[in-house]
Amino acid sequence: MSEVTRTVAAMATRTASRRTAGYRCSECGWSAVKWVGRCGECQAWGSVAEVGDAPARTTAATAVTPAPPIGEVDLTRAAARPTGVGEFDRVLGGGLVPGSVVLVAGEPGVGKSTLLLDVAARAAREGAAVLYVSGEESAAQVRGRAERIDAIAATLYLAAETDLATVLGHVEARSPDLLVVDSVQTVASAEIEGQAGNVSQVREVAASLIRAAKQRGMAVLLVGHVTKDGSIAGPRVLEHLVDVVVQFEGDRHSRLRLVRAVKNRFGPTDEVGCFDLSDVGIVGLPDPSGLFLTRRDLAVAGTCVTVTLEGRRPLVAEVQALVAPSTLPSPRRTSSGLDAARLAMIIAVLDKRAGAPVGSRDIFAATVGGVRLTEPAADLAIVCAVASSVIDRPLATDVIALGEVGLAGEVRRVTGLQRRLAEAARLGFRHALVPPGSLDGGAALPDGIRTHEVADVPRAIEAMGRLAGPRPTDTHAVASV
């Protein structure tokens, strides 16, 4: 063999080696062709190590039963079974589908474990075999919570384990219809490097549990942690693998909890479940609107009621505002339950477009009951609440305000107006401030409610004054106060 031939053969060998050998991060699985001290994906130091050559593999065709026509597929296998918790079933699309995997995410202490323990107990009382795996608490702690919320059932089995193989062994021994894992970040596989909770471990644990769910027709509920910004912790592929992703929301200082579906292969993603979390457990709230209202028998300046849509569900909520003289060079702007940036924008619109004397005053705005209003449809209610506090005149107790406010001071249309008005009429409200042209489609108004169209902020304030009853002398607009 000539020298040139040997050189070419050596270069080919090195090229093949570079194609098959490489380096991989033990934390997230990121790969590279050469060693680096820091992972390019998860930014972990010292986690990149060399891996062996990957053997070449070929996939041969396997003899299978011919695929049936789509019209002959059995639909009963995808039928949802109610959990017994109506608000949770609403979010899931009717209940749990056998073989489905549901990821329930939320901040610590928001009530995820309490809700799932209640769901597990209700399923067990209906005759299902349920296995509850706790990786964060001991069996005694879970038993204590179960007694407190009355979640003891004969076919509800409890295991405190963090090893994936042991968890799968419990599944093999009990053959449950429902498996609850609290949480997926605490379970680890001995075959994967790294600590429990890292990206590689979470991916392997989730994949193994999903495989078991599909093979056995077993529904699985996984509890997931969230990061500081509120997103689900772990690899993004986890959300793609599971069938349903449910977000558990709520202020820890409030009893109200909201459950909404972020992803749902079996139902809509615009449904919201409402729960009341207390010392005796978590209870669904089929009609939660009363939680967000104060007593309506006495009108108070600085308050206004609106109707927000959480998914397809209308919720009546109250906005409160307090405007007071400021002794500071920079007046305070404090909000609770409202978007601070949107509140600042509305204050600027009131100052510029309506001449309201708010620039040099302290303004505090909040919602009642811990509800958080983020949709623009609540803008007009904030305008009315602030203006009411400025002129120190209350709105009538049967008035609501619906509309988005633009920077030019115009009031824009909102979606779902019919549903919002119907909910307000059901609760006894008789007047509604709405954007112009909202009912051009010819839709009939709900019985007992009357709309007042307001094109901009000054006209909204004038209508607010008319609905408040007789006004003091020379109070045609807020600018004159």
Automatic annotation (TrEMBL):
<dbReference type="GO" id="GO:0003684">
    <property type="term" value="F:damaged DNA binding"/>
</dbReference>
<comment type="function">
    <text>Plays a role in repairing double-strand DNA breaks, probably involving stabilizing or processing branched DNA or blocked replication forks.</text>
</comment>
<comment type="function">
    <text>DNA-dependent ATPase involved in processing of recombination intermediates, plays a role in repairing DNA breaks. Stimulates the branch migration of RecA-mediated strand transfer reactions, allowing the 3' invading strand to extend heteroduplex DNA faster. Binds ssDNA in the presence of ADP but not other nucleotides, has ATPase activity that is stimulated by ssDNA and various branched DNA structures, but inhibited by SSB. Does not have RecA's homology-searching function.</text>
</comment>
<feature type="region of interest" description="Lon-protease-like">
    <location>
        <begin position="362"/>
        <end position="481"/>
    </location>
</feature>
<dbReference type="InterPro" id="IPR014721">
    <property type="entry name" value="Ribsml_uS5_D2-typ_fold_subgr"/>
</dbReference>
<protein>
    <recommendedName>
        <fullName>DNA repair protein RadA</fullName>
    </recommendedName>
</protein>
<dbReference type="InterPro" id="IPR004504">
    <property type="entry name" value="DNA_repair_RadA"/>
</dbReference>
<dbReference type="InterPro" id="IPR041166">
    <property type="entry name" value="Rubredoxin_2"/>
</dbReference>
<comment type="similarity">
    <text>Belongs to the RecA family. RadA subfamily.</text>
</comment>
<keyword id="KW-0234">DNA repair</keyword>
<feature type="short sequence motif" description="RadA KNRFG motif">
    <location>
        <begin position="263"/>
        <end position="267"/>
    </location>
</feature>
<keyword id="KW-0346">Stress response</keyword>
<keyword id="KW-0862">Zinc</keyword>
<dbReference type="InterPro" id="IPR008269">
    <property type="entry name" value="Lon_proteolytic"/>
</dbReference>
<dbReference type="GO" id="GO:0140664">
    <property type="term" value="F:ATP-dependent DNA damage sensor activity"/>
</dbReference>
<dbReference type="Pfam" id="PF13481">
    <property type="entry name" value="AAA_25"/>
</dbReference>
<dbReference type="GO" id="GO:0008270">
    <property type="term" value="F:zinc ion binding"/>
</dbReference>
<dbReference type="Pfam" id="PF05362">
    <property type="entry name" value="Lon_C"/>
</dbReference>
<dbReference type="GO" id="GO:0004252">
    <property type="term" value="F:serine-type endopeptidase activity"/>
</dbReference>
<dbReference type="GO" id="GO:0004176">
    <property type="term" value="F:ATP-dependent peptidase activity"/>
</dbReference>
<keyword id="KW-0547">Nucleotide-binding</keyword>
<dbReference type="GO" id="GO:0000725">
    <property type="term" value="P:recombinational repair"/>
</dbReference>
<keyword id="KW-0238">DNA-binding</keyword>
<feature type="binding site">
    <location>
        <begin position="106"/>
        <end position="113"/>
    </location>
    <ligand>
        <name>ATP</name>
    </ligand>
</feature>
<keyword id="KW-0067">ATP-binding</keyword>
<dbReference type="Pfam" id="PF18073">
    <property type="entry name" value="Zn_ribbon_LapB"/>
</dbReference>
<keyword id="KW-0479">Metal-binding</keyword>
<dbReference type="InterPro" id="IPR020568">
    <property type="entry name" value="Ribosomal_Su5_D2-typ_SF"/>
</dbReference>
<keyword id="KW-0378">Hydrolase</keyword>
<dbReference type="GO" id="GO:0005829">
    <property type="term" value="C:cytosol"/>
</dbReference>
<dbReference type="GO" id="GO:0005524">
    <property type="term" value="F:ATP binding"/>
</dbReference>
<dbReference type="InterPro" id="IPR027417">
    <property type="entry name" value="P-loop_NTPase"/>
</dbReference>
<feature type="domain" description="RecA family profile 1">
    <location>
        <begin position="77"/>
        <end position="226"/>
    </location>
</feature>
<keyword id="KW-0863">Zinc-finger</keyword>
<dbReference type="InterPro" id="IPR003593">
    <property type="entry name" value="AAA+_ATPase"/>
</dbReference>
<keyword id="KW-0227">DNA damage</keyword>
<dbReference type="GO" id="GO:0006508">
    <property type="term" value="P:proteolysis"/>
</dbReference>
<dbReference type="InterPro" id="IPR020588">
    <property type="entry name" value="RecA_ATP-bd"/>
</dbReference>
